[in-house]
From TrEMBL:
Belongs to the monovalent cation:proton antiporter 2 (CPA2) transporter (TC 2.A.37) family. InterPro entries: Cation/H_exchanger_TM (IPR006153), Na+/solute_symporter_sf (IPR038770). The keyword Transport applies. Coiled coil: none annotated. Keywords: Antiport, Ion transport, Membrane, Transmembrane, Transmembrane helix, Transport. It comes from Nocardia puris. This is Transporter (CPA2 family). The chain crosses the membrane at residues 54-76, 88-110, 116-134, 146-166, 172-192, 212-232, 262-280, 292-311, 351-371. The lineage of its organism: Bacteria, Bacillati, Actinomycetota, Actinomycetes, Mycobacteriales. GO terms for molecular function: antiporter activity. Residues 14-361 form the Cation/H+ exchanger transmembrane domain. It is found in: Membrane. It holds the Pfam family Na_H_Exchanger. GO terms for biological process: proton transmembrane transport.
């Protein structure tokens, strides 16, 4: 990879913010980045080579940071959310049961044999996508608390389950690796909590801020990459390592200064690079060779929305249920990991992303509808 190619990738990353510029559309930034990568990658002009080892390594760094930020978005410290855990867990379980039936049904219909993967995707929600939408629209009240708990539980469960179902032949090894990563994440949480309670972090923070050392950022990145090293050594995706590290930091409380610094590194460079790389890696031309897979993507997106809005029978408003159906991190991880392990069929990765984009569109429409309803902003 050359500097000229890197400059092109960074410029293409600007397509994300430009497409998401209009707030009322609630278009996720990654949509423009994926589209730009597709246009200049395998689908379009072929200028970007997603197999380039330097490009791939930088994309892996971006993937780890994307999952880390997603983990920090899970509101594990919010006492109000904890009061809604019972309702949220029940809804997540019901969606999971429906997702299992729909996922295996779709796999049988399209004869892919990936029912377990589809079930995890259909059941998943994206805290990194849903929570910013809730904040930007000002939604509040008990339905939002229950929705937040449901999304947090579903997101966490899907991230843990995906490595186990995407390569069932090595599920035992993946389970052991997941346990190792989880144990390291728990150790990280305990260490961070001890440092926080002892006052060491605050003293380091003052020195770092006065001397411009960025100690906290350096330590955060070192811990994240160390956990990613554990994941790679135990044959687990860095997806789980990044998410687990994010959860550990969220449980202690991420310092605002570190959050801003990580935002600059992640959203300013590595995350856009990852999504441009992912778009470049997707080959939408395979839809022309396998047009039936377009229907697979539509079926997956529709199934995710259906499984979530079925909770209307349990009293959840349709708008909030559709918002909970939004998925992006887990499908992206499925495409990334599935492609690396060569377990997906030709064109199937594009179908998974199509399904995810359908849920994003549905959630954006639901958010716009909810934002226009005055009672959606109630604190009761």
């Amino acid at each position: 990879m050359t500097f000229s190619m890197l400059a092109l990738v960074v410029v293409l990353g600007l397509c994300g913010p430009l497409l998401a510029l209009r707030r009322s559309w609630h278009v996720p930034v990654i949509l423009g980045e994926l589209a730009a990568g597709a246009v200049f990658g395998a689908t379009g002009f072929g200028v970007l080579d997603a197999s380039d080892p330097v490009f791939t390594f930088l994309a892996d760094l971006g993937f780890a940071l994307v999952m880390f930020v997603a983990g920090t978005h899970v509101p594990v410290r919010d006492p109000l959310v904890r009061t809604a855990l019972g309702v949220g867990a029940l809804r997540a379980v019901v969606v999971g049961v429906l997702a299992g039936a729909l996922g295996f049904g779709i796999a049988a219909w399209f004869e892919t044999g990936h029912g377990a993967i589809y079930a995890v995707l259909i059941a998943s929600s994206s805290a990194a996508l849903v929570l910013p939408i809730i904040d930007s629209t000002g939604l509040s009240g008990k339905p939002v608390l229950a929705l937040t708990a449901q999304v947090a539980i579903a997101d966490t469960a899907a991230v843990v389950a995906l490595p186990l179902v995407i390569d069932p032949g090595n599920a035992g090894r993946a389970a052991l690796g997941a346990v190792a990563v989880a144990a390291c994440a728990v150790g990280l949480f305990l260490a961070l909590r001890a440092v926080e309670r002892s006052g060491v972090r605050k003293r380091v923070h003052r020195i770092s801020e006065d001397r411009l050392f960025a100690f906290e950022l350096r330590v955060s990145l070192a811990l994240l990459f160390a956990l990613c090293a554990v994941a790679t050594q135990t044959h687990v995706s860095i997806m789980l390592a990044g998410f687990a590290a994010g959860l550990a930091v969220a449980a202690v409380g991420e310092p605002r200064r570190v959050a801003r610094q990580l935002f600059a590194i992640s959203d300013g460079f590595l995350a856009p690079l990852f999504f441009v790389w992912l778009g470049a890696r997707l080959n939408l031309r395979e839809f022309g060779e396998h047009p039936r897979l377009i229907l697979l993507g539509v079926a997956l997106g529709a199934a995710a929305i259906l499984a979530h809005i079925a909770l209307r029978l349990l009293g959840q408003p349709v708008g909030y249920a559709a918002l909970a159906a939004a998925q992006i991190g887990v499908p992206v991880a499925a495409v990334t990991v599935g492609t690396q392990l060569h377990v997906l069929l030709p064109g199937e990765s594009s179908a998974l992303m199509l399904g995810a984009l359908i849920t994003v569109a549905a959630s954006a429409l639901a958010a716009s509808h909810l934002a226009r309803q005055p009672n959606s902003h109630s604190t009761n």
